[in-house]
Design brief:
TIM Barrel; 402 residues
Length: 402
């Protein structure tokens, strides 16, 4: 099944998405997501200049060989740009293979391990009252698990909280905007938020919270300890992720479950975290982790240590990645939960999809492949727009983790 063409489709129906399309001599094609939020054009260049030309003439059925050809053949391995580009190709090839077998992708992976896939969504508010309203709305939509983020008194703009009624999209300007941060104000307020959420909604809801890498280990340990009475499903990204040793101190001081990994690109970024059981959920997503081929190995390794998956699923990933992730979620034995941040109608208009949501759970659908396709003509009506993620500074002006 020879590859005769491969191309990149860049579109911005409200935000930028990068899609890889691979076409075979048999007339079959597959697509994969290669979106890297705020660095999309870097991945496009890597694909167009280095990867896609080398695919022409290769056998699309040899997914494993092609994966290693791209990974090992680059010499400069790993990193977000290279692994995202590799993921776009890998998912497109799995899409082709499943279509050739005339079966949904999860069947090709080994069949489903569950009947439905629990998802969590975001409930964000500028203050406590609006946050409680957002939680109530998410619960009415059927979600059994909800990530809670709230504006902090004295901080002008808080991560996760949108402007007005629009969905939260952090990449809000061509060049990075600057935000202000106070760890002291945050740590003093967030436990109060979760106390109120539990008082209002009881114990049945799964509650999650994203710290976004902003604390030191001892600060994260304090927060985890103070949140223990509210029984979080997880506390996410509590410290910067580059140093895996940082999680040891957090783990020693709190039983709040820990999740990390949306910024990871390979198993090497989280090997010690998993092996030493310093985390409970690994969040590395297919699009940034080298595709299904590599994330499958990561999940198998995590299963040896009772670490479960909890894939990143914000709108910086296209419906193509969501489709592939749901097939993976259906199959993977050590599944934990799937993040879901709804795409806008404009975003979804560019993609057709087989996956479905009902009462807090997803199913990936039974269409051959991963079940998501792209309307190239409509995609062309939404040209790329430069959009950068913000940067963060402490109140004294020190550049901090965003």
């Amino acid at each position: 099944m020879k590859i005769i063409d491969a191309k990149v489709i860049v579109t911005c129906p409200g935000r930028n998405f990068v899609t890889v399309k691979i076409i075979t001599e048999d007339g079959l094609y597959g697509i994969g997501d290669a979106t890297l939020n705020g660095r999309e054009k870097s991945v496009v260049s890597y694909l167009e200049d280095h990867i896609l030309p080398a695919l022409i003439g290769r056998d699309a059925q040899r997914i494993e060989d092609i994966w290693h050809f791209i990974y090992r053949g680059a010499y400069w391995r790993r990193g977000p740009v290279g692994m995202t580009a590799l993921a776009g190709v890998d998912v497109a090839l799995w899409d082709i293979k499943a279509k050739a077998a005339n079966m949904p992708l999860y069947q090709l992976l080994g069949g489903r391990s569950r009947d439905k896939i629990m998802a969590y969504t975001h409930a964000n508010g500028k203050d406590l009252d609006s946050t409680l309203e957002a939680v109530a709305k998410a619960k009415e939509q059927g979600y059994k698990a909800i990530r809670v983020q709230c504006g902090i008194p004295g901080i002008a703009k808080t991560y996760g909280v949108a402007k007005g009624d629009a969905n939260y999209e952090p990449a809000d300007s061509a060049l990075p905007s600057e935000e202000s941060w106070s760890t002291h104000k945050y740590l003093n307020y967030i436990p109060e938020v979760f106390a109120e959420v539990r008082r209002a909604f009881g114990d049945d809801l799964h509650l999650l919270h994203d710290v976004h890498h902003r604390l030191t280990p001892i600060e994260a340990a304090r927060l985890g300890k103070e949140l223990e009475p509210y029984r979080l499903f997880w506390m996410e990204d509590c410290v910067p992720a580059e140093n895996q040793e940082l999680f040891k101190l957090v783990r020693q001081h709190t039983t709040t479950p820990l999740a990390v990994g949306e910024v990871f690109n390979s198993i090497h970024d989280c090997r010690e975290l998993i092996q030493n059981q310093l985390i409970d959920y690994i969040r590395t997503t297919i699009v940034h982790g080298g595709g299904i081929t590599h994330v499958r190995r990561l999940a198998d390794f995590a299963s040896l240590y009772s670490v479960r998956t909890g894939f990143h699923g914000a709108t910086d990933l296209s419906p193509v990645c969501m489709g592939a992730a749901l097939h993976f979620d259906y199959w993977v034995p050590n599944f934990g939960i799937q993040e879901h941040m709804a795409h806008s109608e404009q975003m979804e208009s560019v993609f057709t999809r087989a996956y479905e949501f009902d009462d807090g759970y997803f199913t990936p659908g039974e269409a051959p492949g991963h079940g998501v396709d792209i309307d190239e003509k409509l995609a062309a009506q939404y040209p790329y727009k430069p959009a950068s993620l913000p940067v963060n500074r402490l109140e004294d002006g020190t550049l901090w983790h965003w």
